[in-house]
Specification:
The protein has helices at about 55-60, 115-120, 120-125, 125-150, 190-195, 235-255, 260-265, 280-290, 300-310, 360-370, 380, 400-405; strands spanning about 15-25, 30-35, 40-45, 65-75, 85-95, 155, 160, 175, 180-185, 200-210, 220-230, 275-280, 315-320, 340-345, 350-355, 390-395. It has about 425 residues and is an alpha+beta fold. It has 2 domains: about 5-95, OB fold (Dihydrolipoamide Acetyltransferase, E2P), CATH 2.40.50.140; about 120-415, BirA Bifunctional Protein, domain 2 (2-Layer Sandwich). Bound molecules: adenosine-5'-triphosphate and magnesium ion (MG). Adenosine-5'-triphosphate binds near residues 186, 220, 351 and 400.
Length: about 425
């Protein structure tokens, strides 16, 4: 049985439970074992007088984090944390843990992030850390459900590629027989090809790889991207999908993960849609109250912090200068401005999207204007010559979303086994 299936009303019933020894408290004539399973905690109480001597003596010596199986009787007990305790008949040690532990599972001794990540399997046993990934699972599930309901199909595009998505330098080269190859930084080009293929609405949830040199609290070298691409719509169409998706995720997490939010001591509120929209130019005006930045320059961290403090919560920055956005974005008639947007949470970017340039000639011009070579994009450009519908899409960082939602100070907290500038193991 799982811990949550037992209640004080089961008083007198026989139960079998299994889990980890969270704590052993030996009071001489009385021993308490706090058993932890995937749902919570159980108190196993061993009064010396009642328990068989051998069981009693073995129980008090069980090392913390050993895996045990307990058969016993439920006893209603108001003083116990759940209103009941279990008086064991037998305790079987399924696997004994070594001592001392590399890391404390109880919240008593704080550990630094490196030690925690080096011992992630045990760090994840801590209820607060575990809760993050239980919620992450729900987030992904809600996203999938929402997008399926909206008529999207899920696709899988290659992670081994021969060209940079944006011709950037943030690529990991890999050895691929006699050819040059890279790990993909984004499914961008492939999901656009899917529009030419006629799927109309596709999404992908998969890894992206970025050789970001700098170690920041919001960048990983391997992250999870949620990407959509949709035909016969524009940037505004996909912004609406994005904000509805975010609101749905928050609502689902509130409804289905209440226990984990409580463990994390979080009060989540479902954000109201539509999210505020602010153009790049208006954003610049706000930043310029404290700092001069020329029009056309990207908003750096400091600028975004000023903006985040002013606006707060979830908001869109729209109408970005074309020159700081990738070649595939479509521009307005004023070609200096693109039909692009970023979804922000405070100063952190959660997603980037745009209506895409679907007109072949324009696209080729854009590629050249960025100093890139159309020949290296031939596999992509081909899909634009034989009937490409107008389309738009976005990419949303899953770990960034978790960071924002759960107020995590470091993106590594939202990844089971984060990859950063110095860490590739475990
Ligand atoms: P930033 O400017 O914050 O580095 P970006 O503009 O380079 O991000 P995009 O190429 O727009 O990122 O990717 C879409 C989304 O993927 C981002 O909004 C972000 O949520 C996520 N993302 C991108 N790079 C990373 C990364 N290195 N680590 C974690 N998430 C990332
Ligand atoms: Mg971006």
């Amino acid at each position: 049985m799982r811990s949550t299936e037992i209640t004080p009303e089961k008083d007198g019933e026989q139960v079998k439970v299994a889990g980890w020894v969270h704590e052993v408290r030996d009071l001489g004539g009385l021993v308490f074992i706090v058993l932890r399973d995937r749902e919570g905690f159980l108190q196993i109480t061993l009064p010396k007088k009642v328990i068989e001597r051998e069981t009693f003596n073995r129980a008090r010596k069980i090392s913390r984090e050993s895996v045990i199986k307990v058969e016993g009787v439920v006893k209603k007990e108001e003083k116990a944390p759940n209103g009941f305790e279990i008086i064991p008949k037998t305790i079987e040690v399924l696997n004994e843990s070594l001592a001392p532990l590399p890391l404390e599972v109880t919240e008593k001794v704080p550990a630094d992030l490196d030690t925690r990540l080096d011992n992630r399997f045990i760090d994840l046993r801590r209820p607060k850390i575990n809760a993050i990934f239980r919620i992450k699972s729900q987030v992904v599930r809600s996203i999938r459900e929402f997008l399926y309901e909206e008529g999207f199909i899920e696709v899988q595009t290659p992670k081994i590629v021969s060209t940079a998505t944006e011709g950037g330098t943030e690529l990991f080269p890999i050895s691929y027989f006699e050819k040059e190859a890279f790990l993909n930084q984004s499914p961008q080009l492939y999901k656009q090809i899917m529009m030419s293929a006629g799927f109309e609405k596709v999404f992908e949830i998969g890894p992206i790889f970025r050789a970001e040199e700098h170690n920041t609290t919001r960048h990983l070298n391997e992250a999870t991207s949620i990407d959509i691409e949709m035909s016969f719509t524009d940037h505004e169409g996909v912004m609406k999908i994005l904000e509805r998706l975010i609101a749905r995720v928050y609502a689902d997490v509130l409804e289905k993960c209440g226990k984990f939010l409580q463990i994390l001591e979080l009060n989540l509120e479902v954000p109201k849609i539509p999210f505020p929209r602010i153009s790049y130019s208006s954003a610049l005006e706000i930043v310029r109250r404290s700092r001069e930045i020329p029009w056309g320059e990207d908003l750096d961290l400091q600028a975004l912090k000023i903006l985040g403090a002013e606006i707060g919560g979830l908001y869109f920055i729209t109408d970005w200068p074309t020159k700081i956005k990738p070649f595939y974005v479509m521009t307005f008639e004023d070609e200096r401005i693109s039909k692009s947007f970023d979804l922000m949470h405070g100063y952190i970017e959660l997603a980037s999207g745009a209506q895409r340039e679907h007109r072949y000639e324009r696209l080729v011009e854009n590629i050249k204007a960025k100093g890139l070579h159309p020949e290296s994009f031939e596999f992509y450009l081909k899909a634009f010559r034989y009937g490409m519908p107008p389309h738009a899409g976005w990419g949303l960082g899953l770990e960034r979303l978790l960071m924002a939602m759960l107020n995590l100070g470091n993106i590594r907290e939202a990844m089971l086994f984060p990859r950063d500038r110095t860490r590739i193991s475990p």
